[in-house]
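We emphasize that the prediction below concerns an isolated chain of 567 residues; any contacts that depend on oligomerization or on bound cofactors are therefore not represented. The input was used exactly as deposited, without trimming of termini.
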Amino acid sequence: MVSSGHHLASGIGLDVLKRGGNAFDAAAAVGFALTVLMPQQNGLGGEVPILVSQRGSAQIEALSGDAIAPRAATVEYFRNLDVELIPFDGLLPALVPPAPATWLLLLERYGSLRLADVLEPALDLAEHGFPIYDDLSDAIARQAPRFRREWPSSARKFLFDGRVPRVGEVWKQPALAHTFRRLIQAEASSSERQRGLRAAHEAFYRGEIARQIVAFAQGTAVLDATGRAHTGLLTLADLENFSARVEPAVAVDYRGVQVHKCGPWTQGPALLQTLQLLEGFELSKLGFGSVDYFHLIIEALKLAFADREFHYGDPRFVNVDINRLLSKSYANERRRLIDPHRASLELRPGGYPAIRARHQADVERSRTEHPRHGDTTKLEVIDQAGNIVSATPSGGWLKGSPVIEELGFPLGTRGQMFSLCPEHPNVIAPGKRPRTTLTPSIASRAGRAFLAFGSPGGDAQDQWALQFLLAVLDFGLSLQQATEVPTVTSLHWPASFYPRTAEPGVVLAESRIPSDVLSALRDRGHDVRELAAFSGGNTLAASIDRDHGVFAGAASPRLDPAYAVAW
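Result of the prediction step, given as a token string:
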């Protein structure tokens, strides 16, 4: 079973499984293909946190897949530039690109095929092209004026003789194909599979590709959205010393199901904290989609994401007391703060860290009507042996920074997610990972992993994944039904992305939620903003039922090219 953000990528993953590859081979093939097919959502210069289960084991491992800050990236450096918030675009927020290293580590540690077998389909797509689809054409159209005005390399890559490509026109990416071919050629230097994969890593992070990345980052002054020109901070040493890492996942038990997430270098534990809070309520008796149901979800999310904002950061740099944050006793304590009849307009992190007032002042400087969700994709893969992969590729978007013309991809700009407040757990530091929104998920029961799920959507990822999971576990919906339920999205806490705005009490609600429910939420103090019928909840999922030998998969209809396929 393969579910991914683009049907052609899902088909590629399925073909790898048909040819004898395992779920890890298929996931890497899908991941590389998505960098070609969905440059508006992810790219080779981006990030990809991954969760894996070998043969259905509940001992879930996390591949970090997160970018790290260059050695020159310090608070002092940005303060000297008179930068108060790291911009979301350009080269200043560009970090070491982790995606290639992470896919290569997945193959080296768990895979069975050579890189050439896995990468060939993506190379073929880049070399021979594929038809432009609506979402990609629209994304290029939104950025076209900037490409023409400021980013000529992106204009040459994404525009057809200066115009936006039309839906159905075939788009080829020869420079990206050449980059893929260089990785395959590096692998061919060794007949031993793992040595070949390490040679491909060396080619990207220590060879000519790395030198071209650094030359572009240091030699190109790029205007960001603030109108200021900056070069990047990346050096060869930053790339040469980078490697993806394997870490244990974190988990909680929710009504007999263990839900596993990456650690607090992501927002993933916030979903787990929310589950701990909600376990104290009998949701199934409230009625699915009732005002009580949505109210409790929103209020629990507010408490969990307040902790995300003030406690989470790269555990290699800060002491995140994750055991306490995920404990039943802490949830019992925090649950008392939920008023079942009234929405809170406060930001209430547990412990009220000393940085709260200062950081909140930074957040209060600006407001926005509501942020755009998206710019991320997703994939889930399960094979016949029960191997499971849940991955969230993102970053390196076409709107983030200009294309490195010789390589065919832009760098990621995840550095925007760092704080410049020295006391903050997510403050920028050399070699540190920013607290990312990217958050894959795996669930297990009775010691066996059975479900991979997750959603694109920035700060909404775990909000939508939560509502999907509750629909499955508490209300017995099928995977596809659960991806289609109408959702709410809170904007209450500070956003992870520039300009870090917060809108206390604001809830975005799909118009399919009955008007009397929305009216009742307003009566309880929620500032409900009604959106289109299918405007939130982009979950993908795959599951395996070992008792009956049945696989299931789902893809939200909100994700136009997404598809679940099986063989």
